[in-house]
Amino acid sequence: MNNLDRDLRVLVLAPTGRDAELISDLLTSKGIRCEQPGTLAMARIEMAAGVGALLVAEETLTLPEITAWAAQVALQPSWSDFPIILLTMSGEVDEESQRRSLLRKPLGNVVLLERPARPETLVSTVQAALRSRRRQYQMRDYLAVQRLAEEALRKSEKLAVVGRLAASMAHEINNPLASVTNLLYLMGQSGSLWECQEYAQTAGRELARVSEIVTQTLRIYHQTGRPELVSPAEIVNSALNLFRARLTAAQIVVQTDFRECRPVLAMGAELRQLILNMIGNALDAMRTGGMLKIRVAASSERSNGSRPGVRVTIADSGSGIHPAIKEQLFEPFVSTKGDTGAGLGLWVSSEIVRKHSGKIQVRSSVSPPAAGTVFSIFLPERPHFESRVFFARAV
Ligand SMILES: Nc1ncnc2c1ncn2[C@@H]1O[C@H](COP(=O)(O)OP(=O)(O)OP(=O)(O)O)[C@@H](O)[C@H]1O
Ligand SMILES: [Mg+2]
């Protein structure tokens, strides 16, 4: 017997005379598989293995039996609504018949068939019950496929995160490792002990940076650090200080506009990383000088119940974002910088913003004289932190 045959069996329980046998013969002659479990307790055991419907004579149902069935019915999975065809006694609607109808209420999906039932009526009622059971099985199979697909998706998402993590780490440690290779080569070529010591010291510093990057990058966390109250303006200031030398060398004029605003609850290190990513990109877009304007001001996000927060706007007069990548800007590995860009900065930044339940938007133009890019980041004062797997990237 294959699974479907088993799942569509009809259990026939009619203890009086040869009823069960006659009914089974009739249904079998119509291609319906029947079994006679003998007792309701046996029928319940069979039900666990898969049954299409139960055809049962009303007199079999005692109160304890109904209670036991009701418990089983309540335990059905969400897709199941097990059909029961109840062969009722004929006669008037009286007190006794009403008592019986109340009694069978907990049995769930019950169809009544009054005896004596015509053979065609009996067969068509059973067929209808089996049709509905077949649809329930379709739903069961659909849900099982859904579950498998969801699991596969979850696994592939986890793998993707690990892949990105590895790519990001490789990207970050590539430069210091190249320096170390270079320094080792120079040491081999040098005849001076003093020079070799200098090279060795520099190589040591580069390796320390590699180890720092690895530690920092491997910090995969489900929201470990604690959120703290931070001032976005202070973070912007400290980030600008870090870039001071590059800004001066590239002849970039910086204009800041810090308005009065309240601190926001945030992961400080991540906000710093976010701002550094944005300023780094702006600098890359202004190789031959330009203007960098950063504004920090109190704001509220109208689209989401007027949440109060802070908006950081970073505008540069650089090259503008290449139209070919605009659509995928926040996806990983999207870059126009060749070997010098991994295309992870904006992806990581958008993850940070999302984790802080904020919003990041961009406007950009590549046509001079209006060429340039504006990133606008809204950070709510009191974010609801998502606890999803996330990695911090070394900066
Ligand atoms: N301010 C900007 N002006 C012009 N183009 C930008 C700007 N910011 C981002 N882009 C474009 O978006 C791409 C993706 O930026 P992203 O920061 O994600 O990666 P990346 O800077 O190329 O590499 P990484 O940040 O990983 O070192 C960049 O390569 C660049 O083409
Ligand atoms: Mg970048």
TrEMBL record:
<dbReference type="InterPro" id="IPR003661">
    <property type="entry name" value="HisK_dim/P_dom"/>
</dbReference>
<dbReference type="GO" id="GO:0000155">
    <property type="term" value="F:phosphorelay sensor kinase activity"/>
</dbReference>
<keyword id="KW-0067">ATP-binding</keyword>
<dbReference type="InterPro" id="IPR005467">
    <property type="entry name" value="His_kinase_dom"/>
</dbReference>
<dbReference type="InterPro" id="IPR036097">
    <property type="entry name" value="HisK_dim/P_sf"/>
</dbReference>
<dbReference type="InterPro" id="IPR001789">
    <property type="entry name" value="Sig_transdc_resp-reg_receiver"/>
</dbReference>
<keyword id="KW-0418">Kinase</keyword>
<dbReference type="GO" id="GO:0005524">
    <property type="term" value="F:ATP binding"/>
</dbReference>
<feature type="domain" description="Response regulatory">
    <location>
        <begin position="9"/>
        <end position="130"/>
    </location>
</feature>
<keyword id="KW-0597">Phosphoprotein</keyword>
<keyword id="KW-0808">Transferase</keyword>
<keyword id="KW-0902">Two-component regulatory system</keyword>
<dbReference type="InterPro" id="IPR003594">
    <property type="entry name" value="HATPase_dom"/>
</dbReference>
<protein>
    <recommendedName>
        <fullName>histidine kinase</fullName>
        <ecNumber>2.7.13.3</ecNumber>
    </recommendedName>
</protein>
<dbReference type="InterPro" id="IPR011006">
    <property type="entry name" value="CheY-like_superfamily"/>
</dbReference>
<keyword id="KW-0547">Nucleotide-binding</keyword>
<dbReference type="Pfam" id="PF02518">
    <property type="entry name" value="HATPase_c"/>
</dbReference>
<dbReference type="InterPro" id="IPR036890">
    <property type="entry name" value="HATPase_C_sf"/>
</dbReference>
<feature type="domain" description="Histidine kinase">
    <location>
        <begin position="168"/>
        <end position="383"/>
    </location>
</feature>
<dbReference type="InterPro" id="IPR004358">
    <property type="entry name" value="Sig_transdc_His_kin-like_C"/>
</dbReference>
